[in-house]
Design brief:
With about 325 residues, the protein is an alpha+beta fold. The protein is about 35% helix and about 25% strand. The protein has 2 domains: about 130 residues, 2-Layer Sandwich (60s Ribosomal Protein L30, Chain: A), CATH 3.30.1330.10; about 190 residues, Phosphoribosyl-aminoimidazole Synthetase, Chain A, domain 2, CATH 3.90.650.10. The protein has 10 helices and 13 strands. Bound molecules: cobalt (II) ion (2 copies).
Length: about 325
């Protein structure tokens, strides 16, 4: 859809615009400072309004972190039913405020509209030094790929909606989605990552494909190395997933070469749409260990899930 927008002129202050499928736009204010801007709203993924508010805020902030930026201000966007229970709205706002407070982001205002279905999110503004912007477009041949949160949130949220999810798995799902990508982003900036994105609606492979295309490389994902929430494979085997998973598969499949050893259930996990997912980071192999050490110190559990190669027949390769 963004293709119909006019492209920024050369030499413009638009450092990152719509054409590289990046997480946020970046606008140069001065040689040393640029604004990072993004907007993201989601429908409820958990039942508890307070937890949903925290997830919605963490999810919206994530796009600024994924660009290497520091968010500092936000505007809320709320869609809420005419006769909705105001206690739900208050819970959502309290949860979001808590996350914004922890992230040291000021809420400047917002907008509320009547809508049959609840939706909640934020327009977020952050700052970044122009030379430290981390985009989708600069992955290099030989880079390794790190993922900073397990995948499977779409599958577990679908199980929750269908009342199939146990308490322990519900807590794991909620905690993971509330977790900020701030510390992972700080580590990646300190170790000068080549490229990064956060893994959200298009699933791990969809977002990997964005990096591959923007960087004109092929990305090879090692399917066995990809961490997932422990309940996810079982639900996939039982046919529990959201429609978005199938559309993601249709989106990535023409660009993907699948190793025969990768089973149908693993393929589905790899395209599960995520909410407030982790960062997918491309980084030179010589810096991977330093990055992993920083992530461990920050209590971020990351895994090396693949590599960047020169462009081959397909933009994505998934190996067993
Ligand atoms: Co994003
Ligand atoms: Co987004």
């Amino acid at each position: 859809m963004l293709r119909i927008l006019p492209r920024p002129a050369r030499g413009s202050k638009v450092l990152v615009g719509p054409d590289t499928w990046d997480d946020a736009g970046v606008y140069r204010l001065s040689p040393r400072q640029a604004l990072v801007q993004t907007v993201d709203i989601i429908t409820p993924v958990v039942n508890d309004p307070y937890a949903f508010g925290r997830v919605a805020a963490a999810n919206a902030l994530s796009d600024v972190y994924a660009m290497g930026g520091s968010p500092f201000a936000a505007l809320s966007i709320v869609c809420f039913p005419e006769r909705g229970d105001m206690a739900i709205l208050r819970g959502m706002l309290r949860g979001a405020s808590e996350t914004l407070r922890r992230a040291k982001v000021a809420l400047l205002g917002g907008h509320t509209i009547r809508d049959a279905e609840i939706k909640f999110g934020f327009a977020v503004t952050g700052a970044v030094a122009p030379r430290r912007v981390v985009t989708n477009a600069k992955a290099r041949t030989g880079d390794l790929l790190l993922l900073t949160k397990p995948i499977g949130t779409g599958i577990l949220a679908t199980a929750l909606k269908r009342r199939l999810l146990g308490d322990r798995d519900r807590r794991a799902l909620t905690t993971q989605m509330m977790t900020l990508n701030r510390d992972a982003a700080a580590a990646m900036v300190a170790e000068r990552a080549s490229a990064a994105t956060d893994v959200t609606g298009f699933g791990l492979l969809g977002h990997a494909l964005n990096i591959a295309r923007a960087s004109r490389k092929t990305i090879r994902i090692w399917s066995q190395a990809v961490p997932y929430l422990s309940a996810a494979p079982d639900f996939v085997a039982r046919g529990v997933w959201a429609k978005g998973l199938d559309s993601n598969m249709a989106f990535v499949d023409p660009a993907t070469s699948w190793d025969e050893g990768v089973e149908a259930s693993s393929r589905r996990l790899l395209v599960d749409p995520q909410t407030s997912g982790g960062l997918l980071i491309a980084i030179a192999p010589s810096r991977v260990n330093a990055l992993l050490r920083r992530l461990t110190r920050a209590k971020v559990r990351a895994a090396v899930v693949g590599e960047v190669t020169a462009r081959r027949a397909r933009a994505l390769e998934v190996v067993a």
